[in-house]
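Example record

One chain of 67 residues, shown exactly as stored in the release files.
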Amino acid sequence: MSIGRVTEISATSTESFDDAVKQGIQRASKTLRNIESAWVKDSKVSVSNGNISEYRVNLAVTFLLDD
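Predicted structure tokens for this chain:
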């Protein structure tokens, strides 16, 4: 039997939503073991002078607990 836990994180990128997701998972992997999946709960952009300045995603990251 496996037991999982879900934690929420936010990640940003100046390039794209995809890059924000990748950076979020890479950073979470430095602290969390056994990451199984991630759900993009929310996404939004910051705008400066009529241009997108930042892409932000809120992720629900699921990881398995050690036995």
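Notes: The radius of gyration is 14 Å.
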